[in-house]
Amino acid sequence: MEDTDVTKTEKVIDDKILVEKSKRGDKVAFEQLVRLYSRYVYTNAFFILRDSQEAEDVSQEVFVKVYLSIKNFRGLSSFKTWIRKLTVNTCIDKLRVKSKSLDKKVSLESFEDNYEIVFTNLDHNIEKNFITRETVKEVLGIIVEMDETYRIPLILRDLQDYSYIEISDLIKKPIGTVKTNIHRARKIIKEKLKYEKNSRSMKK
Protein backbone atom coordinates (compact mmCIF):
# COMPACT_ATOMS: atom_id res chain seq x y z
CA MET A 1 0.00 0.00 0.00
CA GLU A 2 2.85 2.34 0.88
CA ASP A 3 4.52 1.63 -2.47
CA THR A 4 1.29 2.57 -4.27
CA ASP A 5 1.03 5.82 -2.33
CA VAL A 6 4.65 6.66 -3.16
CA THR A 7 4.02 5.95 -6.85
CA LYS A 8 0.95 8.21 -6.84
CA THR A 9 2.92 10.98 -5.13
CA GLU A 10 5.77 10.71 -7.60
CA LYS A 11 3.30 10.79 -10.49
CA VAL A 12 1.69 14.00 -9.18
CA ILE A 13 5.14 15.59 -8.85
CA ASP A 14 6.04 14.48 -12.37
CA ASP A 15 2.75 15.91 -13.64
CA LYS A 16 3.49 19.29 -12.11
CA ILE A 17 7.01 19.37 -13.51
CA LEU A 18 5.86 18.35 -17.00
CA VAL A 19 3.01 20.87 -16.91
CA GLU A 20 5.31 23.71 -15.87
CA LYS A 21 7.80 22.81 -18.58
CA SER A 22 4.99 22.56 -21.14
CA LYS A 23 3.71 26.00 -20.14
CA ARG A 24 7.18 27.34 -20.98
CA GLY A 25 6.98 25.79 -24.44
CA ASP A 26 8.93 22.57 -23.80
CA LYS A 27 7.62 20.27 -26.55
CA VAL A 28 9.38 17.18 -25.17
CA ALA A 29 7.63 17.64 -21.81
CA PHE A 30 4.29 18.08 -23.56
CA GLU A 31 4.83 14.89 -25.56
CA GLN A 32 5.47 13.10 -22.26
CA LEU A 33 2.16 14.41 -20.91
CA VAL A 34 0.42 13.11 -24.03
CA ARG A 35 1.96 9.66 -23.58
CA LEU A 36 1.08 9.68 -19.90
CA TYR A 37 -2.59 10.53 -20.43
CA SER A 38 -3.45 9.29 -23.93
CA ARG A 39 -4.92 5.99 -22.70
CA TYR A 40 -6.83 7.77 -19.95
CA VAL A 41 -8.40 10.26 -22.36
CA TYR A 42 -9.21 7.61 -24.97
CA THR A 43 -10.89 5.24 -22.51
CA ASN A 44 -13.03 7.96 -20.98
CA ALA A 45 -14.09 9.06 -24.46
CA PHE A 46 -14.84 5.49 -25.53
CA PHE A 47 -17.20 4.80 -22.63
CA ILE A 48 -19.16 7.97 -23.37
CA LEU A 49 -19.22 7.70 -27.17
CA ARG A 50 -19.06 3.89 -27.62
CA ASP A 51 -17.09 4.32 -30.83
CA SER A 52 -13.35 3.67 -31.09
CA GLN A 53 -12.80 6.02 -34.04
CA GLU A 54 -14.70 8.86 -32.39
CA ALA A 55 -12.76 8.23 -29.18
CA GLU A 56 -9.53 8.57 -31.16
CA ASP A 57 -10.79 11.81 -32.72
CA VAL A 58 -11.75 13.20 -29.31
CA SER A 59 -8.34 12.25 -27.92
CA GLN A 60 -6.60 14.23 -30.65
CA GLU A 61 -8.95 17.16 -30.18
CA VAL A 62 -8.44 17.18 -26.41
CA PHE A 63 -4.66 17.27 -26.67
CA VAL A 64 -4.85 20.06 -29.24
CA LYS A 65 -6.97 22.01 -26.73
CA VAL A 66 -4.46 21.24 -23.98
CA TYR A 67 -1.57 22.38 -26.16
CA LEU A 68 -3.30 25.66 -27.04
CA SER A 69 -4.47 26.47 -23.52
CA ILE A 70 -1.93 24.94 -21.15
CA LYS A 71 -0.28 28.35 -20.63
CA ASN A 72 -3.52 29.45 -18.98
CA PHE A 73 -3.73 26.38 -16.70
CA ARG A 74 -3.49 27.83 -13.19
CA GLY A 75 -3.29 24.56 -11.31
CA LEU A 76 -6.38 25.16 -9.16
CA SER A 77 -7.19 21.50 -9.76
CA SER A 78 -4.88 18.65 -10.73
CA PHE A 79 -3.88 18.30 -14.37
CA LYS A 80 -5.72 14.97 -14.41
CA THR A 81 -8.96 16.64 -13.30
CA TRP A 82 -8.50 19.38 -15.89
CA ILE A 83 -7.90 16.97 -18.78
CA ARG A 84 -10.81 14.79 -17.62
CA LYS A 85 -13.16 17.78 -17.80
CA LEU A 86 -11.86 18.71 -21.24
CA THR A 87 -12.47 15.14 -22.38
CA VAL A 88 -16.00 14.94 -20.97
CA ASN A 89 -16.96 18.35 -22.35
CA THR A 90 -15.60 17.49 -25.80
CA CYS A 91 -17.55 14.21 -25.80
CA ILE A 92 -20.78 15.88 -24.69
CA ASP A 93 -20.38 18.49 -27.43
CA LYS A 94 -19.92 15.71 -29.98
CA LEU A 95 -23.05 13.93 -28.73
CA ARG A 96 -25.06 17.15 -29.07
CA VAL A 97 -24.01 17.57 -32.69
CA LYS A 98 -25.16 14.12 -33.77
CA SER A 99 -28.42 12.36 -33.12
CA LYS A 100 -28.76 9.86 -30.27
CA SER A 101 -26.17 7.11 -30.29
CA LEU A 102 -26.97 4.17 -32.51
CA ASP A 103 -28.15 1.08 -30.70
CA LYS A 104 -25.13 -1.12 -31.25
CA LYS A 105 -23.24 -3.88 -29.51
CA VAL A 106 -19.90 -2.79 -28.12
CA SER A 107 -17.11 -5.17 -27.21
CA LEU A 108 -14.54 -4.49 -24.51
CA GLU A 109 -12.22 -7.17 -25.86
CA SER A 110 -10.13 -4.58 -27.71
CA PHE A 111 -9.09 -3.08 -24.36
CA GLU A 112 -5.98 -4.18 -22.57
CA ASP A 113 -6.55 -6.30 -19.47
CA ASN A 114 -5.84 -3.35 -17.19
CA TYR A 115 -8.18 -0.88 -18.88
CA GLU A 116 -10.41 -0.67 -15.81
CA ILE A 117 -7.62 1.05 -13.85
CA VAL A 118 -8.78 4.25 -15.52
CA PHE A 119 -11.76 4.23 -13.18
CA THR A 120 -10.96 2.09 -10.16
CA ASN A 121 -7.91 4.08 -9.10
CA LEU A 122 -9.83 7.34 -8.97
CA ASP A 123 -11.74 6.83 -5.71
CA HIS A 124 -15.06 7.17 -7.48
CA ASN A 125 -18.31 5.50 -6.53
CA ILE A 126 -18.45 2.53 -8.85
CA GLU A 127 -17.09 -0.11 -6.45
CA LYS A 128 -18.90 1.35 -3.44
CA ASN A 129 -22.24 1.39 -5.24
CA PHE A 130 -22.17 -1.88 -7.13
CA ILE A 131 -19.35 -4.29 -6.98
CA THR A 132 -16.23 -5.91 -5.75
CA ARG A 133 -13.01 -5.39 -7.69
CA GLU A 134 -13.47 -8.80 -9.31
CA THR A 135 -16.64 -7.69 -11.09
CA VAL A 136 -15.39 -4.37 -12.45
CA LYS A 137 -15.19 -5.65 -16.02
CA GLU A 138 -18.71 -7.09 -15.85
CA VAL A 139 -20.12 -3.77 -14.68
CA LEU A 140 -18.26 -1.76 -17.31
CA GLY A 141 -19.54 -4.19 -19.93
CA ILE A 142 -23.11 -3.52 -18.78
CA ILE A 143 -22.55 0.25 -18.70
CA VAL A 144 -21.13 0.48 -22.20
CA GLU A 145 -24.20 -1.34 -23.58
CA MET A 146 -26.66 1.03 -21.87
CA ASP A 147 -28.83 3.51 -23.69
CA GLU A 148 -27.29 7.00 -23.73
CA THR A 149 -30.05 8.32 -21.47
CA TYR A 150 -28.75 6.20 -18.61
CA ARG A 151 -25.11 5.66 -19.60
CA ILE A 152 -23.96 9.28 -19.74
CA PRO A 153 -25.27 10.54 -16.38
CA LEU A 154 -24.16 7.31 -14.65
CA ILE A 155 -20.62 7.63 -16.02
CA LEU A 156 -20.43 11.27 -15.00
CA ARG A 157 -21.72 10.58 -11.50
CA ASP A 158 -20.33 7.18 -10.51
CA LEU A 159 -17.20 6.97 -12.65
CA GLN A 160 -16.26 10.64 -12.88
CA ASP A 161 -17.64 11.99 -9.60
CA TYR A 162 -19.46 14.97 -11.11
CA SER A 163 -22.16 16.52 -8.93
CA TYR A 164 -25.82 16.29 -9.94
CA ILE A 165 -25.81 20.03 -10.66
CA GLU A 166 -22.75 19.71 -12.91
CA ILE A 167 -24.31 16.78 -14.78
CA SER A 168 -27.57 18.66 -15.22
CA ASP A 169 -25.69 21.59 -16.70
CA LEU A 170 -23.57 19.41 -18.97
CA ILE A 171 -26.35 17.32 -20.49
CA LYS A 172 -29.00 20.04 -20.30
CA LYS A 173 -31.49 17.98 -18.29
CA PRO A 174 -33.34 18.87 -15.04
CA ILE A 175 -31.66 17.61 -11.86
CA GLY A 176 -34.73 15.48 -11.10
CA THR A 177 -34.36 13.72 -14.45
CA VAL A 178 -30.64 13.23 -13.89
CA LYS A 179 -31.22 11.63 -10.48
CA THR A 180 -34.00 9.41 -11.81
CA ASN A 181 -31.90 8.18 -14.74
CA ILE A 182 -28.88 7.48 -12.53
CA HIS A 183 -31.06 5.56 -10.07
CA ARG A 184 -32.51 3.57 -12.97
CA ALA A 185 -29.04 2.88 -14.39
CA ARG A 186 -27.82 1.57 -11.04
CA LYS A 187 -30.88 -0.66 -10.82
CA ILE A 188 -30.19 -2.04 -14.31
CA ILE A 189 -26.64 -2.92 -13.28
CA LYS A 190 -27.73 -4.66 -10.09
CA GLU A 191 -30.43 -6.62 -11.90
CA LYS A 192 -28.08 -7.75 -14.67
CA LEU A 193 -25.34 -8.70 -12.21
CA LYS A 194 -27.87 -10.75 -10.24
CA TYR A 195 -29.16 -12.40 -13.43
CA GLU A 196 -25.65 -13.26 -14.62
CA LYS A 197 -24.72 -14.62 -11.21
CA ASN A 198 -27.84 -16.82 -11.14
CA SER A 199 -27.16 -17.99 -14.69
CA ARG A 200 -23.64 -19.06 -13.77
CA SER A 201 -24.94 -20.90 -10.71
CA MET A 202 -27.46 -22.83 -12.78
CA LYS A 203 -24.75 -23.98 -15.21
CA LYS A 204 -22.64 -25.50 -12.44
By DSSP, the count of extended strands is 0
| Rg for CA atoms | 18 Å
Largest sheet: none
Low-confidence stretches: 1-10, 120-124
| Mean pLDDT across all amino acids | 81
Tell me the helix content: over 70%
What count of structural domains? 2
Taken as a percent bin, the fraction of beta residues is under 5%
User: Which fold name is given in CATH as the topology of the largest domain?
Assistant: Rna Polymerase Sigma Factor, Chain: A
| Helix-strand makeup class | mainly alpha
Q: What is the CATH architecture descriptor of the largest domain?
A: Orthogonal Bundle
How would you sum up this structure in a few lines?
This protein has helices at 2-23, 27-49, 52-69, 79-97, 117-120, 126-129, 136-145, 148-159, 164-171, 175-203.
List the helices and strands and how they pair.
Elements: H1 2-23, H2 27-49, H3 52-69, H4 79-97, H5 117-120, H6 126-129, H7 136-145, H8 148-159, H9 164-171, H10 175-203
How would you sum up this structure, described in words?
With 204 residues, the chain is mainly α. The chain folds into 2 domains: 1-98, RNA polymerase sigma factor, region 2, helix turn helix motif (Rna Polymerase Sigma Factor, Chain: A, Orthogonal Bundle); 118-204, Arc Repressor Mutant, subunit A. It has helices spanning 2-23, 27-49, 52-69, 79-97, 117-120, 126-129, 136-145, 148-159, 164-171, 175-203. Helix 3 (52-69) packs across helix 4 (79-97) and helix 7 (136-145) packs across helix 10 (175-203). The longest helix has 29 residues, at 175-203. The termini are far apart. The model is unreliable at 1-10 and 120-124 (pLDDT under 50).
